[in-house]
Write a structure and sequence with these properties.
Keywords: ATP-binding, Kinase, Membrane, Nucleotide-binding, Phosphoprotein, Transferase, Transmembrane, Transmembrane helix, Two-component regulatory system. By secondary structure, the chain is α+β, with helices and mostly antiparallel strands. The chain is built from 12 helices and 7 strands. The strands form 2 sheets. A 5-stranded mixed beta sheet has the order 2-4-5-7-6, with helices on one face. Strands 1-3 form a two-stranded antiparallel sheet.
C-alpha cells in the first residue's frame, strides 16, 4: 500500500513538473520567435554564412510556432499525455539546435570579435540565463539546451587558437565553462527547491482530500445518528402514540356497534346514523393524521431539499406525538396561538428538535416531588430576520455549571438507560444547519427556557 502511494505521488510530481515546463515555457516561445526574426533581419553583419543564418532563423521560427500551439493546447486541457511530452522535448531540443546554429555561425564568421560579436555574446548569456527558469525541472531538457549553446562556442575558440591565425581567446573558454558549471549548479539547487515545493503541494492536496472524505463520512454518520435519535424518541413515546390511536379506535368500535343496533331496529333513525357515521369519519381522519405524521417523522429524509412549511403544521404534527404522553404525566401543554408564518426548512428535523425539547422538559417535570402545577409553555417571537420558539417549563432551573455543558455530545444528567446525551447536541446541529440556532435562555430568571431560532422566509 505504501509503495503504491509513493508511486502515485511520484507520478503526480512528474506530471506537475511537466506542466510547469509548459507554463514557464510558453512565454519563452515568444522570445524564441522574436530572436528568430531578429536574426533573420539583422544577420549579425555576416556575409559568408548569412544565407545559412537566415535558413536557421526560419527553421527556428517554425519550431517556435509549433511549440507555442502545442503548449497552448496542453494548458487548455490542464494535462499532457506522454506523446505530447515527447513532442515538447523534441521541440525544445530543436529550439536549442536552431539557436546554436545561428549563434555558432555568427561567432565563427566574426572570429569572436567586433561589435556584432558583442551582440552574439549578449544574446547567448541572456538565453542561457533565462533557460534556468523554464527548463530547470528536467536534466533531459536543461543540460542539452545549455550544451548546444555553449559547447559550439568553446569549439570555435579552440579552432581559432590552433588555426594559423592563432587567435588566443582561451580566457573566454574559461568564462564560458565557469558559466556552464555555474548554471549546472544552479539547476541542481533550483530543481531541488521546486521538487520540495511541489511535494508539499501534493501532500497538501492529499490532506485536503482526506479532510473532504472524512467530512463526508462524518456527514453520513451524522445523518444516521439523527435518524436513530429520532426513532429513539418515537420508541420512548410509543405508549402515548399507541394510546393516541387507541382512543379513536374505541370511538369507531362503539359507533359501529350503535350503527349495528340501529340497522336491526324497525325504524331507521337517519340523524343517529349520520351522527355516528361522522364520529367514525373524524376518528378515521385522526388515525390517518397520526399514522401519516408517524411515517413522516420516521422517514430517513434528512437530505431532502428544504421546503416552505407553515409553523402551525409543524406544531400540529409534533403535539400529536406528545399530548398523550404529557397528559399521562399530569403535565399541561400551554400552546400560544401560532402565527400564520412560513419557514423554509426540513419539517421532520424541526419536529425532532421540538420533540426532543418537550421530552426533556417532561422528564424534568416528572422528577418533581413538590405538589405544584406541572406545565410546559410554547411561545413565539419574531424580528425582521428570525422567528423564535420559546419552550419553557415550570420545573427547577438548570444550574449554570450544567447549562454550560448541555449541548456537548454525550453529556447527560439522566440515568444511563434513559438518555444518551445526544438529543440536544443533535438538535443544536440541526438548527445550525438551518441557518439558525438552539440555545438555553440565560436571561429568564424564573423558568427553564430553550429557544429555537430560525430564519424567516420572506415572500
Amino acid at each position: 500500500m505504501y509503495a503504491f502511494e509513493m508511486l502515485h505521488r511520484d507520478l503526480l510530481l512528474n506530471n506537475l513538473l511537466r506542466l510547469e515546463v509548459v507554463k514557464k515555457g510558453q512565454p519563452a516561445t515568444y522570445a524564441f520567435l522574436g530572436f528568430a526574426l531578429f536574426s533573420f533581419f539583422y544577420g549579425y553583419g555576416c556575409q559568408e554564412y548569412l544565407f545559412y543564418i537566415k535558413i536557421a532563423s526560419v527553421f527556428l521560427c517554425v519550431v517556435s510556432i509549433l511549440r507555442f500551439f502545442l503548449y497552448r493546447n496542453i494548458l487548455h486541457k490542464g494535462s499532457l499525455t506522454q506523446k505530447e511530452w515527447v513532442s515538447a522535448v523534441i521541440l525544445i531540443t530543436l529550439n536549442a539546435v536552431g539557436l546554436g546554429i545561428v549563434l555558432g555561425l555568427a561567432s565563427f564568421e566574426l572570429k569572436l570579435s567586433g561589435p556584432h560579436f558583442i551582440v552574439v555574446t549578449t544574446l547567448l548569456a541572456g538565453l542561457i540565463g533565462a533557460s534556468i527558469v523554464s527548463l530547470s525541472f528536467f536534466a533531459i531538457l536543461f543540460i542539452p539546451f545549455q550544451s548546444v549553446l555553449l559547447l559550439p562556442q568553446v569549439g570555435i575558440i579552440l579552432y581559432y587558437y590552433f588555426s594559423p591565425e592563432h587567435l588566443n581567446f582561451l580566457p573566454l573558454i574559461v568564462l564560458y565553462l565557469m558559466y556552464y558549471f555555474y548554471q549546472l549548479k544552479q539547476f541542481s539547487s533550483y530543481r531541488k527547491d521546486l521538487i520540495q515545493l511541489f511535494t508539499y503541494q501534493i501532500e497538501l492536496e492529499r490532506k485536503n482530500q482526506e479532510l473532504i472524505d472524512n467530512k463526508n463520512i462524518i456527514m453520513d454518520q451524522t445523518v444516521k445518528l439523527i435518524h436513530t435519535s429520532r426513532l429513539a424518541v418515537l420508541g420512548e413515546m410509543s405508549t402515548g402514540i399507541a394510546h393516541e390511536i387507541n382512543n379513536p379506535l374505541t370511538i369507531i368500535s362503539a359507533s359501529v356497534q350503535v350503527l349495528s343496533r340501529l340497522g336491526t331496529s324497525d325504524k331507521l333513525d337517519v340523524e343517529q346514523v349520520i351522527k355516528y357515521s361522522q364520529k367514525i369519519y373524524r376518528s378515521v381522519e385522526r388515525i390517518s393524521k397520526i399514522v401519516k405524521g408517524l411515517k413522516h417523522f420516521a422517514t430517513q429524509s434528512d437530505r431532502i431539499p428544504k421546503e416552505s412549511v407553515y409553523i402551525q403544521d409543524i406544531l400540529d404534527e409534533t403535539t400529536q406525538f406528545c399530548s398523550e404522553h404529557l397528559e399521562n404525566l399530569g403535565i399541561t401543554l400551554k400552546l400560544e396561538e401560532v402565527p400564520p408564518l412560513q419557514i423554509r426548512c426540513r419539517s421532520i428535523q424541526i419536529s425532532q428538535v421540538l420533540i426532543n425539547l418537550l421530552k426533556n422538559a417532561s422528564d424534568a417535570l416528572a422528577k418533581e416531588t413538590e405538589e405544584r402545577e406541572k406545565w410546559i409553555a410554547i411561545n413565539f417571537k419574531q424580528d425582521h430576520e428570525f422567528f423564535y420558539v420559546h419552550i419553557s417549563n415550570g420545573g427547577e432551573k438548570i444550574p449554570q455549571v450544567i447549562a454550560e455543558k448541555i449541548f456537548h455530545p454525550f453529556f447527560t444528567t439522566k440515568e444511563k438507560e434513559k438518555g444518551t446525551g445526544l438529543g440536544l447536541s443533535i438538535s443544536h446541529t440541526i438548527m445550525k444547519d438551518h441557518g439558525g440556532d438552539l440555545y438555553y435562555d440565560l436571561s429568564n430568571d424564573f423558568f427553564t427556557t430553550f429557544v429555537i431560532k430560525h430564519p424567516v422566509e420572506f415572500n
